[in-house]
Each structure stands twice: as structure tokens, then as C-alpha cells.
Specification:
Length: 330
């Protein structure tokens, strides 16, 4: 919502509800802290990767990057997610294992994307304990990465990582529904690492940049350098938390974007809906997260742009801390 990023009349009108939201969340967190609400300790270390604000922070690319880093160090990584799939095709039972071939309409687009990029064991369920138990039984994992769940205090965690959007930061600074925040920024004082996606990293934050170099054809899987498309007009679409970030990336690379279409995050598509966006001679560009939902009915002029996370060397301190947790070192 646009008013989340300015302190205008709508935000102030909703501020009493934001105050109520703060009170409820603060009481809930306090109840877990004193043991009034019970939390569960997993048999393996848990790394929670979350955010303070709603959507589009770069959490999924970071999760992929971190999973690969830990796999390169010989760890069996398990990843849990609540899963998100709007509509009637949502999974009928949980927990559910996710593979690269799972139906995004059933398990969600992000879990399928992570499965394709990492090959890690992935399970989805609103009950994180169920997912961890299933993964541990199926794969005998060494460490769990929780994709989201910073505010899910029913699950104890060994390490917390918060990912923030360097451009939008904390919006107007209000909590939901007056602003985009789930918790106040001072919550960052309690996490183990703050990863800033893009520009404007502050002191103590680890800068992450998302690099895009190629386009991949949805139909043939052919890869082409992005530079080959600069001279021709293209159409761009995105159904992610912050679509404008994708559009800005294309324009920064000097693409001639003649039309752009933003959909709600996790939107479901049909061949007819996307075919109407571009003619057969116009390349239609989308994010990799969108592509996992469209590959089964792809056309020859549809391309997606994979991104690779690049992080400052200071991130090595976080990786070493995770390895110490896995090895039982204090």
C-alpha cells in the first residue's frame, strides 16, 4: 500500500489500530518469554530468516544464498516455510515435502523456487514443528533455515537474521495496518545479523546486492546475456512483494520497457492472461519466482531473470556462528 511509505492522513487515521496491534504483539512476545505460552526446541540448530516489514525485502534470495553456503561446507540443510498458495488448490494436508517438481499452486511459489535453486529438503506447514520433524525423519538434517518466522515465537531459534529493504527501509515507521511493520525497528537490536538488500546499508548492517546477468527462456531454458535485449522493446511483469524493484532493475540496465504490469504478490496466472500482455514478437520478462508458476504453459517469447545474491565479507562471521551451533561449540 502506497500510504505505508508516507506519514499522511490514512496512516494517522489508522494509528489507533497500529497501537492496538503493538499491544497485542508485545503481550504475546512477553508471554512466550516468561513461559506462559510454550515454545518448542528443535533437535537441530534453527536459523530464522525474517523481516520486520511486509513483503519484498529480498528474504528468498538470501535464504538460497545461505543454504548454498552451508551445503558447500558439508551440511545437510533443511528449509521450512509456512507455504503460500492462494485459491482452492492449496495443499489439503500438512506437513508436506516440497521438490523442484511440486505444483506452485499447491505449495507456493517461493518453496518451489528455493527447491529448484538449492536441492535442499523443504517442508511446508503452518506448524513449523511438524515441518522440522518431517524433514529430520526424511533427510537427517544438520541445520534448519526457517524462511520467515521472525515473529513465530512458538519455535525456539538459535540464530536470527533480519533482511530489510535498503530502499524502502521501514516505510512510514508505523505498525500494521497504518504502516508496513510487524514489529518496531528496535527489534533489530536482538537479532544476530541484519542484512540490507540494496543501497543505504547502515552501520552494523551487512550489505546484499542482487546481480542479474542473463535471461532464461521459460520454454527452452536457453540462456542469453541481458545485453542482447537492450535494443528491442520489451514488456515486463511481476507478482512479488515489491514489483517496482524488478522494473527499476530492467530500466537501470537500459532496457526499453514499453509496458509494465504489477500483480499482487503470489498471484496465480493462466496462459491467456499473460499472452494478452505482449505480442508474439515482444519478449515478456518476469521474475524467477513468477516463472515457476508459468513454466507449464510457457510461450517462446517468455523470459525470466534469475538473480544471485552477493554479500559483504562480514557475512562470514554469521556463517561461522552457524557452524559453531551445528558443531556444538560455545
Amino acid at each position: 500500500m502506497n500510504f505505508w511509505y508516507q506519514k499522511g492522513i490514512p496512516a494517522w487515521l489508522l494509528s489507533p489500530l497500529a497501537l492496538l496491534f503493538w499491544g497485542v504483539t508485545a503481550l504475546r512476545r512477553f508471554a512466550y518469554r516468561i513461559g506462559l505460552f510454550k515454545s518448542w526446541k528443535a533437535p537441530v540448530p534453527v536459523v530464522v530468516i525474517g523481516n520486520l516489514s511486509v513483503g519484498g525485502n529480498g528474504k528468498t534470495p538470501f535464504t538460497i544464498w545461505l543454504a548454498r553456503q552451508l551445503q558447500q561446507r558439508g551440511l545437510k540443510v533443511g528449509i521450512i516455510s509456512r507455504g503460500y498458495a492462494p485459491g482452492s488448490d492449496r495443499a489439503k494436508q500438512y506437513p508436506l515435502l516440497v521438490s523442484a517438481d511440486s505444483d506452485p499452486a499447491e505449495v507456493g511459489d517461493e518453496p518451489v523456487l528455493i527447491a529448484r535453486r538449492t536441492g535442499a529438503g523443504i517442508a511446508i506447514s503452518p506448524d513449523r514443528r511438524q515441518s522440522i520433524s518431517l524433514l529430520n525423519k526424511a533427510y537427517h538434517i544438520d541445520v534448519i533455515l526457517s524462511d520467515d518466522g521472525l515473529q513465530h515465537y512458538a519455535l525456539q531459534r538459535d540464530i536470527e537474521v533480519a533482511v530489510i529493504d535498503g530502499q524502502r527501509r521501514f516505510g512510514n515507521g508505523f505498525l500494521l495496518p497504518a504502516g508496513p511493520l510487524r514489529e518496531l525497528p528496535n527489534r533489530l537490536k536482538g537479532v544476530d545479523a541484519v542484512v540490507c538488500n540494496g543501497d543505504n546499508a547502515q552501520a552494523g548492517e551487512i550489505e546484499m546486492r542482487l546481480q542479474a546477468e542473463v535471461a532464461v527462456n521459460l520454454l527452452t531454458q536457453e540462456e542469453r546475456p541481458l545485453s542482447e535485449f537492450i535494443a528491442q522493446p520489451i514488456v515486463a511483469m511481476a507478482a512479488i512483494g515489491n514489483p517496482q524493484r524488478f522494473f527499476n532493475m530492467l530500466k537501470k540496465k537500459q532496457f526499453n520497457v514499453v509496458k509494465q504490469k504489477a500483480f499482487v504478490d503470489h498471484a496465480q496466472f493462466s496462459e491467456e492472461k499473460l499472452a494478452a500482455l505482449a505480442t508474439a514478437r515482444q519478449p515478456l520478462f518476469m521474475t524467477e519466482k513468477d516463472a515457476v508458476k508459468c513454466s507449464r504453459f510457457a510461450r517462446a517469447n517468455w523470459w525470466y531473470v534469475p538473480v544471485e545474491a552477493q554479500l559483504q565479507p562480514t557475512i562470514n562471521g554469521l556463517i561461522e556462528k552457524i557452524m559453531q551451533e551445528v558443531n556444538g561449540e560455545q
